[in-house]
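To whoever is covering the structure queue this week,

Two jobs came back overnight. Logging them here so there's a record in the thread.

Job A:
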Amino acid sequence: MKIDIYDSVMDTDKHLAVPAGTDVSTIAKRADFDCDLLDVKINKTIDIQPGEHRVAIDSDDVIRQIREKGYAEFYTKITVTIGSKH
C-alpha cells in the first residue's frame, strides 16, 4: 500500500497517514481525531506491506486504520543512547 505520511505542525512526533494522493482536507475525521493533526505538513510517500518491519511505523496497525477509517494516526519517538556497557 502506497501511503503519504504527514507530520503534525503542533507536535512533530505525531503523524497522519493516508492513501497516497489523498487530499487530507477532505478526509472524514472521527470525533476522537487528534486535534494536533488538524495542521499537518507532508513528510514523505512510502510503500508499506502487511507484516513489514519498519523503524517507528507499525505497518499492520497503519494499514488496519486506513482500511477502517480512511486514515491512520500514529506517534513516533526514537531514543538513541550512546555509551559503553559496564
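Job B:
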Amino acid sequence: MPGALNRPVKREKSLAEIELTRYNAARTNVQVHLAERYKLDNEITRGQVIRKDELMKGLSRIADSIVSRITASTLSRNEQDDILKELASLPLVLEEAIRAQTQLRNREKAARKDDKDS
C-alpha cells in the first residue's frame, strides 16, 4: 500500500494530557464566570441594572395611586374596567421584557446544544 506510510498514526492521550485538558477547561470556565461577575458588578455600580423587587415595589405604589384616581373619576364603569385591565397587564409586560433581555436561558440552551453535539 503506497499511501499507508503517509497517514499519521493516531495515539491515545496519556492520563497527564487528559487531566491537563480538564484542568485548562475548568480554569477557562472559572475565568468566564469571573468576567461575567465583574461585568455585572460594574453595571450595578454604574446604575445600569435595576433590582426587580425594588422596581416592582415602586411600580406597585404608582399603580395603587392610579387605581384610586381611576375609581374616583367620572368615567363609566366599563371604561374604568378597561383601564384597570390594561394596568393589571403591566407586570406581565415587564416579565416578558425581562425574559427577552436575559442571556441566561440562551446560554443554557447553547450549552445543552453543545453537549448534544459532542
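Note for Job B: The chain has five helices and no strands.

Please reply-all if you pick these up so we don't duplicate work.
Q.
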